[in-house]
């Protein structure tokens, strides 16, 4: 493989895996809640 191909492969991998990590972090911070579940009580 040429250097250009390797650079573009790394860019593509960082884009895909970075999007996956960002999605997991976002879902961990703001979990989806089913419509039939009662809201979670907030403790202060």
Automatic annotation (TrEMBL):
The keyword Transmembrane helix applies. The chain crosses the membrane at residues 6-28. Keywords: Membrane, Transmembrane, Transmembrane helix. It comes from the Bacteria. This is Methionine/alanine import family NSS transporter small subunit. It comes from Microbacterium luteolum (Aureobacterium luteolum).
């Amino acid at each position: 493989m040429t250097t250009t191909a390797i650079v573009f492969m790394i860019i593509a991998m960082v884009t895909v895996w970075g999007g996956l990590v960002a999605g997991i972090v976002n879902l961990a911070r703001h979990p989806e809640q089913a419509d039939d579940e009662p809201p979670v009580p907030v403790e202060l």
